[in-house]
Amino acid sequence: MMRITAHQARLIHLAAQGLVARPRRRAGKADVLAAIARMRVLQIDTIHVVARSPYLVLYSRLGPWEPRWLDELLAEGRIFECWAHEACFAPFADYELHRRHAERGCSNHWSMKSAARTHAAQAVGVAGLLEHIRTHGPVKAAEFERKDGAKGGGWWGWKDEKRWLEALFARGDLMIARRENFQRVYDLAGRVLAKARTLGDPAAVADEGAMREAFTLGAVRALGVTQSRFVNDYFRSGNLLKDPALDRHVVRGELLRIDVDGWATPGYVHCDHADLLAQARAGHLRATHTTLLSPFDPVVWHRERAAVMFGFDYRIECYVPAPKRRWGYYVLPILHRGRLVGRLDAKAHRGERVFEVKALYLEPDVAPTPALATAIAAAIDDCAGWHATPRVKLGRCDPGAFRRELSAALRERAGA
C-alpha cells in the first residue's frame, strides 16, 4: 500500500469537503447546490447564536452567499430534507437512496423510532392530520395551537400536531415543500416529488445491497480519506465497519487502501480522488484557507474522527449544562491552512451590529504569531461582515498575549 503523511491526509479530507483553498470568486446559487452535492448531506440545526448551522457550513466553503438560495433550492426541488446523519438537506439525486433506507427499516435513528411510537400510540390523530393536508394543502406546525398551555422543547415537548407532522415526515408520507423563516412547510410527498421530478429523476437504487454500497462509497468520497470505522457514521447507514468489509471495494478499484503515518488502521480514498491523492503525495496540494467552522460541520461532527485527523478534541457544548462547559455555548473551530488551530466562542448581536468574540483559545501546540493573528482577524472580520454585524468586540484570549496581536490586526482591518 502507498503511504502518506498525516498532513497529506488532512489536505485530501479538506479538499474533498471544499475547505482546502479560499473561494476564487463570489459564490452563486449553483455553487450552493454544488457544495451540498460534494458533502452529500448538510446538517440542519436551528440554533442561531451566530448563523444557523447550514448557513455557516456553506459560508465556510463559499464565502459570502445569499441564504435565500438555500430556501429556493428546497422550494424548487433541487434538494430535499431527510434524516441521515441527523436532520439534513441532501441533493434530490439521492432521494431514492435515503427513502429506501427508511422504508426498509434499516435506520436505527431516534427519529424513526419516535415516529413508529407516535404512529402506534396516536394513529387516529396522525391519520386525521394527513387527511387535512391532503384536502387543504401544505401546513406549518405553527398553524396549530397548543391545547395544554405548555412550551415546546424536543420531540417529547412538542404539541401533538408537531409530533404527528414529524412522524409523517420521517415515515415518508410527508416531505418538506419549502421553509418560511426557517419553519418547515409540510406537504404530501407525492406533490413535492412531482414538482422535483420536473427537473430530473433521482438515481435508482436496485436493492438493499446497492443501497449499502452507495452509502459506503458516498461516505468515503465525501470524506476524502477516512478509516473504516468512521464510514457508516457519515450517513448513519449502519453499524461500525471493519476493514474486511471494504475488501471487495478495494479489489474492484472503487477504493484505494493506504497507510497514513500515525494511524493504527488503514485509510481509504475513493477512486474519484486518485488525482487528489497524487497531488498530495507530490506536495502539490496546499491549504490556503482560514475560516470559522460550524459546530455541526462534517469536519468536526464526529469527535473521534476529528481527533484522529487533526489531533483536535472537540465537543459541542451548547447541549451541556453551563457549569460543565469548558469552552463556551457555541464554539466555532478555527481552520487555518489545513489545521484546526483553535476555537472561538462567538455571538452575533444583530440588533447592535456587533460580532462578539467572548473568548478565543489557541491549541497548546500552536504558535501565536503575528501572521496567525492577521489570518484569524481576517476570518473573524469577514464572517462578521457577512452577518451584518461589522463591529467586532474582542473578549479574552488564551494565550493572553495573543489578544494584543489579534486586536491590532482587527483594528487594521477596520481601518482599511
Brief characterization of the structure:
InterPro entries: AlkZ-like. The protein is built from 15 helices and 14 strands.
What does this structure look like?
It is a single chain. This protein has 416 residues and is of the alpha+beta class. 40% of the residues lie in helices and 18% in strands. It has 15 helices and 14 strands. The chain has a five-stranded mixed β-sheet, with helices on one face. Strand 13, helix 14 (370-386) and strand 14 form a beta-alpha-beta unit. Helix 14 (370-386) crosses helix 15. The longest helix has 17 residues, at 370-386. It is globular and about 65 Å long. The termini are far apart. Mean pLDDT is 93; it is low at 152-156.
Average pLDDT confidence is: 93
The Rg value, from CA coordinates, equals 22 Å
Helix content: 40-55%
Kindly state the number of beta strands: 14
Beta-sheet strand percentage? 15-25%
Q: How many DSSP helices?
A: 15
SSE map:
Layout: E1 3-4, H1 6-17, H2 29-39, E2 42-43, H3 53-62, H4 68-76, E3 79-83, E4 87-91, H5 95-103, H6 110-121, H7 123-136, H8 160-171, E5 174-180, E6 183-188, H9 189-197, H10 208-223, E7 225-226, H11 247-251, E8 255-260, E9 267-270, H12 274-282, E10 290-292, H13 303-310, E11 331-336, E12 339-349, E13 354-362, H14 370-386, E14 391-398, H15 402-415
Parallel strand pairs: 1-8, 13-14
Antiparallel strand pairs: 2-4, 3-4, 5-6, 7-9, 8-9, 10-11, 11-12, 12-13
Helix pairs in contact: 1-12, 6-8, 7-8, 14-15
Features:
single chain; 416 residues; five-stranded mixed sheet; four-stranded mixed sheet; 14 strands
